[in-house]
Amino acid sequence: MTSQNPIPPLDPRPRERRQRVQAAETGMAILKGLADLGGRATLTALSARVSESAAKVHRYLASLSEEGLVSQDAATQQYFLGPEAIRIGVAAMRQADPLRAAEPALVRLRETLEVTCFIAVMGNRGPTIVRFEEPGLPVTVNVRVGSVLSLLWSATGRAFLGYLDEGAVQAMAKEELANSSPERRALLDAKQPIEALRREVRDAGCASVRDINLRGISAVSAPLHDHTGRVCAVLTALGATGGFDAAVGGAIASAVRREAAAISATLGFPKPPPDCDPEESAAIARTA
């Protein structure tokens, strides 16, 4: 006797969709793993990176190769990012605008720390403010969008000086040092003041000043790196010295460095591996 209300068969489509999603996730993980390994790696290294068996990774690499996302070096048997991956990356980098990428960070710093913050780029006259955010109770400072800052005496300038090796920037810093008052020059290392500043900034991953550039004002700045590793802009937070912790190990400096690293990642700067310890992470930023 047959049932009056037979149970309909399970719809296979949801399962198929889940399998397709999982396959896409695995493919993306392999591409990301290849990028994390410098864009070129052996099957063994890549399998270890994504925690999958070599046989499974090999199947996905074959499919990715068919789409031009991965290629293989016949001599070394290493896999590397293919022409289609490069085309996608180039298209993404065309959209990598440091000002646009930094806007959410400026808002977060302004609201969570209640500090004035801005983005500056290196102009032909020096570090120039191009985006400015103030909290509800702003600190009175005589800088605004368009203001050009000191390379030696502002945190923003020191962040640029620490990471930019261009001859024009070094010449600008030397000229500024020569024109500085004896009192200001006494604040720096007497033997190699510019090199000492550069080492200090790179060791800390940020620059900090207290009452040097503007009386009663302290600031912390961290560099923004583009996909080539070059510093393309600087993120700065500032406030009244009495209520602003400018220590390079303090909460404000940590927040500024963290936001700067996130912006840099958006711009294509390689992030440290997940298992990278803090000292190694700092080394990656210092040597960029």
Question: What's the topology here?
Answer:
Blueprint (H helix, E strand, L loop, with lengths): L12 H24 L3 E2 L1 H8 L3 H13 L3 E3 L6 E3 L1 H12 L3 H16 L2 E8 L2 E8 L21 H9 L3 H12 L3 H4 L7 H12 L2 E4 L6 E9 L5 E10 L10 H16 L11 H9 L2
Helix pairs in contact: 1-2, 5-10, 6-9
CATH uppermost class of the largest domain? Alpha Beta
Report the major sheet.
Answer: 5 strands, antiparallel
Give me the count of strands.
Answer: 8
Q: What is the fourth-level CATH superfamily of the largest domain?
A: GAF domain
Q: Average pLDDT across residues?
A: 83
Q: Strand portion, in percent?
A: 15-25%
C-alpha end-to-end distance = 77 Å
Please give the CATH architecture of the largest domain: 2-Layer Sandwich
Based on secondary structure, the structural category is alpha+beta
Looking at the structure, the CATH topology of the largest domain is Beta-Lactamase
* Element-level helix/strand string: HEHHEEHHEEHHHHEEEHH
Compute the CA-based radius of gyration: 25 Å
Strand order of the largest sheet: 5-4-8-7-6
